[in-house]
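Hi V.,

Quick status before I head out on leave. The structure for the redesign project is tokenized and pasted below; the design run finished overnight.
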């Protein structure tokens, strides 16, 4: 679920459901932990990519604005 967090930010809520398939019942708790770690790592990477893109776009707007002011 994506929500406006104010200040130009967006908040994403992720809900994982299900049982790791193909694992014996006694390994399923470890599978859940591994899935959670992978999701946290992937979401941190996604956040870094999106924030870097946002910074680049803000810098480009600032440069374009200064060029317009110079004219």
């Amino acid at each position: 679920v994506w929500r406006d967090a104010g200040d130009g930010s967006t908040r994403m809520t992720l809900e994982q459901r299900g049982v790791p398939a193909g694992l014996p019942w006694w390994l399923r708790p470890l599978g859940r932990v591994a899935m959670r770690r992978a999701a946290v790592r992937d979401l941190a990477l996604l956040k870094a990519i999106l924030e870097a893109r946002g910074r680049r776009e803000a810098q480009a707007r600032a440069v374009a604005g200064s060029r317009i002011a110079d004219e």
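Above is the designed sequence. The mean pLDDT is 84.

G. will cover questions while I'm gone.

Best,
W.
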